[in-house]
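Subject: Sanity check before I submit

Could someone independently write out the structure tokens for this chain? I want to compare against mine line by line before I put it in a report. The sequence has 140 residues.
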Amino acid sequence: MEWVKALHVISVIAWMAGSLYLPRLFVYHSVAEKGSVQSETFKVMERRLYRGIMTPAMIASWIFGLIMVFNGMVDWSSGWPWVKAAFVIALSGYHGWMGGFLRAFREDRNVKPQKFFRMINEVPTLLMIVIVIMVIVKPF
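---
Independent answer below. Compare away.
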């Protein structure tokens, strides 16, 4: 099970790295002129990050996490796993939300300003803070 834990942590790190970087790409992409070389380059970068790193990492995080759950490594009588699970589901929803913006940029129909992407870039950090505190501190 130590290998499963290690692989879970590795995949979570990759998922979080992408979750923090993709909105930053959107910040720069939102000010690039539609159809420009720069805009087309951002499309490639965003697609590769989302499909090549973030989504596989999210799937791996879920798989390794569920392996630990089904092998009795989580005491569901405590409150912390429920909070962690809720925030992981929220992070997964955020991932899907980013996929929607990816499609909008790909189709040159993004209408959100760069300030919007700067603000939502903080969401995964806030979710991660709660998740890590639940797992490490287990406050309840």
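---
OP: Matches mine. For the report I'm noting this point. Residues 37-70 form the longest helix (34 residues).
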